[in-house]
Amino acid sequence: MQTAEKILVIGSSGQIGTELVQNLRDIYGIDAVIASDVKVTEQAKEGPFEVIDVMDAQGLLTIVKRHKITQVYLLAALLSATAEKMPKFAWDLNMQGLFNVLDLAKEKIIRQVYWPSSIAVFGPNTPKVNTPQFTVMEPSTVYGISKQAGERWCEYYFKKFGVDVRSLRYPGLIGWKSAPGGGTTDYAVHIFHEALKSGSYECFLSGNTVLPMMYMPDAIKATIGIMQADAEKVKIRSSYNLSGFSFSPEDIAGEIRKYIPGFKISYAPDSRQQIADSWPQSIDSQEAQKDWGWQPEFDLAGMTADMIKNLKK
Ligand code: AKB
Hints:
Layout: E1 7-10, H1 15-28, E2 33-37, E3 49-51, H2 57-67, E4 71-74, H3 80-85, H4 87-106, E5 112-114, E6 117-118, H5 142-161, E7 164-166, E8 168-170, E9 172-174, H6 187-197, E10 200-203, E11 211-215, H7 216-228, E12 240-241, E13 245-247, H8 249-257, E14 264-267, H9 272-277, H10 286-292, H11 300-312
Parallel strand pairs: 1-2, 1-4, 2-3, 4-5, 5-7, 6-8, 8-12, 9-11, 10-14
Antiparallel strand pairs: 11-13
Helix pairs in contact: 1-7, 4-5, 6-8
The chain binds 2-amino-3-ketobutyric acid.
2-amino-3-ketobutyric acid (AKB) is lined by residues 79-80, 118-120, 143, 170, 172, 183-185.
């Protein structure tokens, strides 16, 4: 077991944080990983936990110093759909939170930062299929604008101040251990719960909306993988494209029917459709493969089988 690191996960009770904390604790030990969120959650029963508002730089500093934190994973953010409802708050949270953490690394109080970006950095003028790492971006959502700006700041802090910051552009993430909150890709999790509960699902995106997605074990593997990679291998310090697999609501409904033959899906696209239409359909992650060996394990069939098996339990 590695013990030198002391890790703080901010926004740890969300969809990614819940699983990331468990995985980090398996590697580094329970006491080496401090979970934190804006309020006390069930996670507080599982190991060290702190209440942190990432907007409060002084409060954050106090906790970082108290635990002698070496690495911060900053997961607190508003996602695409929620950010459209509260644009000013989303911008403030997504940007100020990042600055507060990057500044800790700039001041050499912590050694390493992980910050998630998203396929939302791309926009309607981006090539949609096999979207390259370097291409037209022009995001059209508040969330996407904050992620693109955040990427620029990460690279700036790396180049100007030597901050060891690492980042991935997550596609839609699917997992069974926790619920997603406020994203456009959330349907791909809800569909499983509804399929098992009621045998039907009304989807808020149209049936043929293809989006890039990833199963959570792959996302966690990539996240810990890039943080553990040798610094010189992490050549891109804005954020890496990350690919899993792509599907539409029709495709996933067909896959679910292999396990629940009578499953019915209907479509009632809402404002999230416009967000989805502005995003890529598939992602080229050559740079991540080349630089630090990214390789996903799950495809649509493997993810569906595993989701259904675990949710049935
Ligand atoms: C969202 O839908 O907002 C997120 C994302 C793709 O970043 N899941």
